[in-house]
Amino acid sequence: MTNRFFPGVVCLLSCATAFSAGTAGPPQLRLPETVRPVHYAVDLTIVPGKTTFTGTGDIEIDVREPQSLIWINATELNIHQAVLRTGGQTLTATVVPGDSNSVGLSFNAPVRGRSVLHLAWDGRISTKSSAGVFELTSAGQHYVYTQFEPTDARRAFPCFDQPSFKVPWLVTLHVPKEDKAFANYPESSQSDDANGMKVVHFAETAPLSSYLVAFAVGPFDVVDAGKVGKVPVRIITPMGRGGEAKYAAESIPELLALLERYFGRPFPFAKLDSVVMPISNFAMENAGLITYGQSMLLAKPENDTLHRQRECALVTAHEMAHQWFGDLVTTSWWNDIWLNEGFANWMDDKIVGEWKPEWNVDADAVKERMHAMDLDSQLSARKIREPIDSESDIANAFDDITYDKGEAVLRMFESWIGADTFRKGVQLYLNAHAYSDATTPQFEAAISEAAGKNIAPAFDTFLDQAGVPVVSAALNCGSGAATLTLSQKRSLPIGSQAPSPQTWKLPVCVAYQSGGTVRHQCELISDSQAEMTLPDASACPAWVLANDREAGYYRVNYQGDLLKNLLAASQGFGAAEQTGIVGDIAAEFTTGDVAPRTAFAAVSRFRDDPFPQVITNNLKIAEYTVGSLVSDDLRPKGREFIRDNFAARAESLGWSAKPGDDHDTRLSRHELVTAVATYGEDRKLIVEAEQLANRWLADRKGVDPDMLAEVLQVAARFGDRALFDRLHAAAREEKDPRVRSDLIRAMASFHDPQIVESALKLLLTSEFDIRQSLSMLREPLHYPGTRDLPFRFLQEHLDQLMPRLPREVGEDFAAALPAVADEFCDARQRDAVKVFFADKIDSYSGGPRNLAHSLEKVDACIAERSALGPEIDEFLRGYGGQ
Q: Any catalytic annotation for residue 319?
């Protein structure tokens, strides 16, 4: 029976009803180091279509101090048997309920030394959440997968569920004969079992943390992708979908070979399977058995898109990079998870950029850096290395600060000390800690050894404090060599005030043109002010780029004529540099360091830029003319400004690809046409989108696959109830999860509040998987007339919605609900959100920080509207077209 006071563990043995005198309670978050696992042998019976599974296991443990109570992690497991074999004895354990994450095993006498803990249990196969062991269906077939990061291995088997406990595993699965089974290592043998089952034994793994163990069971297809060196590579798809893995099967081996070359050592495990999960929208780097959401790996070749192929390449490169950085060498604790995720983000851009240089992935890395800076500029931003003291802290650690800021800081230090030197340090780190765990100081030590200098003090200023540096640069061209006067401080939105001044040990690298030659200079700036001499610049440089290659994690505020001169020369720069220049202008628009008129002038200068990443940042500036900072009566002027700058080019590009379109043209169409139709309300583009959408809904033809989602959304924004009903009917019938998601997002994009309310109500039904339909809460935020509807929906229906919200990759979906306030811009709405979530947010894992982020965004918008709104209004009142 379930113990109502300790709902995480059900005891079918006799459970201790109280702790004995002097016995410590359950461990808080971390298990004690006095008992460590040495080896696991796990035997599970998994039947797709059933809601439970059974398991037995032997855990060899090392009890380092005599004790009669051993704590182990277990969540929602019914433990049937627990005995300890030690010193020729077999001791029966009494199960002591702990909390939702742990259980104690109590013995009549203290135990010490090497022992084998034998356990038997059963657990749940979830159909709603991807935490632990879960089931998904495709075409009526059932498939079972696992997702254990960060702390859900304990839902599959009792274990010591911490990343630093890294040992070999032997996995055996009992599965239906007609199904296939996969785990981290290759199958070693197979035999018949009773009742139409078979037993599949897998080879013993290299040392793995529990969160990296995985298995999958179901009627899969197997696509052979050849070998990379001695490593077999396969794509594992749902039945009948193998033909859709063509691009993945071609690209994964090529990317894997490039990763091996960078790391200077072969793939660290015995095989590499890439396993497809229907519906899911995440990927996980399980050693030798990487799982991916279906749309990341599968597409019918005739309907494949450039965006999906880019996503496939970047995500697979990311997860494969983890096989070295995360799996071969594993972070010791979750405060250093940036070592896994920031590194893999950095590596996927590097490797895909090498593989497809025409994709300008370095410019995408600059965009990701800009996104991280937007988050990091908030006072509620977390540090990269934040102390982990609660489950909420673990959930918060898997955010864009970890991923995108972590990547950007790595990129900056690589640029400072040199790519070859940095690579040498990475290889030293991997070689020193292979098949073990490690920490940030150990990584810094390896990079410092390669660099011949201690980089840790500078590195730590970015890891151990939140915030974005902004560097003000002023050029002095007096007598002698030219100099740059540099000052640094924390970049903050208007209205924010840092509690104390901040500085960083900041590698500042600049490029400048002197005497017709482009020169480069780097210095480490430690104080709030410094001067940099520009060698060979006896005359004033024609221009200065104060963030060379846009590799530094800082914004630049150009003083005097520096910005004007830089913009005049900008067409000679590459995609990354232009993306960074325009991105700084966009960011400093909201800090007050760049005046609105200056920013809007930059829009006109860059409106014909060929690089899609530059277009994105340029549109970000232009969209301020129709956003929350503008008076309602002036938004038509803002739409005119957008059309004047971008409509001619957008209409020329159109919604459909043309013969000879190159990579940048295809991506530019995606960015530009959609924005001009949406924010410029370009009637020609809107009418074309409506016609294309209606034609596609009739026969699934006539729309460029690259633009399907955008065509449907634009048509919906300006559409009527009849179109909503057609989209709704199509979504119900659609079998492709990616297309179904496009249809659902379109259903949430209407400007008619009554239609949006109808869409939101679908969240309370089982008509669509909630993991796809939650976009219903996001899309209405982009339009003033529907912006408050998601929050109103939560106020009225939260109790009905909560039981339907899942968990994925450590994420409690409820924790993201405060984001419904992200586009609010008045104090009344802010206060209503704060009051509504006040007595709820602590129960959402990671929720308190998310709420703080959202409330701070509202405050920033209020301050920006007060400070910048009048200037934008003045610009628009005087705007007469171009």
A: yes
